């Protein structure tokens, strides 16, 4: 394996360590100019001092950061064997593979749950051609739902793909919203007069009407496009 390829892997592991998705976000996270990150990506030469600082700042293993050995952030010991597989890092260096972050956010599908910090649980490596076929943007994220209010559509523990580019609920669908400091998954309908109707697919939950003058208190974060759940 050539040094440029190794450098590309280190750069991608830096992004994972800082919980970012691209070079621009990494430059902001570490306080380096975008041109510096571009040069690292181009020549595959990432200063060891940057890796040491990243290990100190984020708490990741320096062995993992430099060599890919050990347990990755958010992974358990059982995943160590998988990470030693030479195919494991394909998604980190192959431009045809998109690494979609999976958030360990208890994105409430019930009464809602407030949170102040998102933790990246891992990454779902997907072929960009498959993403295009499914009409999923590579800028989306997977979030894990909690609660039972969306039972029948989204069950407790399911992973839902959220497209943050689709924030206009004029088209009925299931959306991730921020309301009263809580993030929730709700079906949204536009009603006469310009208000919104928040619907729980579980009939045991009442519908919520958001009047036009109250819409400012509801932030639509993104539209839910795909649900990954257990088949029974």
UniProtKB/TrEMBL annotation:
Domain Bacteriophage CI repressor N-terminal as annotated: residue spans: 9-70
MF terms (GO), sorted A to Z: DNA binding
SUPFAM superfamilies, per database record: LexA/Signal peptidase (SSF51306)
Organism per entry: Vreelandella nanhaiensis
InterPro entries reported for this sequence: Lambda_DNA-bd_dom_sf, LexA-like, LexA/Signal_pep-like_sf, Peptidase_S24_S26A/B/C, Phage_CI_N
GO biological process, any: negative regulation of DNA-templated transcription
Domain Peptidase S24/S26A/S26B/S26C per the UniProt entry, residue ranges: 101-223
Signal peptide range: none
Keywords: DNA-binding, Transcription, Transcription regulation
Pfam families listed in its UniProt record: Peptidase_S24, Phage_CI_repr
Superkingdom, taxonomy of origin: Bacteria
Stated name of the protein: LexA family transcriptional regulator
């Amino acid at each position: 394996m050539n040094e440029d390829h190794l450098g590309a892997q280190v750069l991608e592991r830096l992004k994972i360590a800082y919980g970012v998705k691209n070079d621009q976000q990494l430059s902001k996270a570490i306080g380096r100019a975008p041109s510096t990150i571009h040069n690292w990506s181009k020549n595959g030469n990432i200063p060891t001092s940057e890796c040491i600082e990243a290990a100190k700042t984020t708490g990741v293993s320096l062995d993992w950061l430099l060599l890919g050995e050990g347990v990755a952030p958010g992974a358990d010991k059982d995943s160590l064997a998988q990470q030693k597989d030479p195919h494991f890092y394909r998604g980190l260096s192959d431009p045809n593979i998109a690494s979609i972050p999976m958030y360990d956010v208890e994105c409430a599908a019930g009464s809602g749950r407030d949170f102040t910090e998102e933790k990246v649980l891992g990454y779902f490596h997907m072929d960009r051609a498959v993403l295009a076929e499914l009409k999923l943007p590579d800028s989306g994220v997977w979030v894990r739902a909690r609660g039972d209010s969306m039972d029948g559509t989204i069950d407790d523990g399911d992973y839902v793909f959220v497209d943050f580019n689709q924030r206009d609920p004029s088209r009925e669908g299931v959306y991730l919203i921020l309301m009263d400091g809580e993030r929730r998954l709700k079906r949204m309908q536009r009603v006469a007069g310009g208000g919104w109707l928040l619907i729980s697919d579980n009939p045991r939950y009442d519908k919520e009407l958001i009047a036009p003058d109250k819409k400012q208190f509801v932030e639509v974060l993104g539209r839910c496009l795909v649900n990954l759940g257990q088949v029974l």
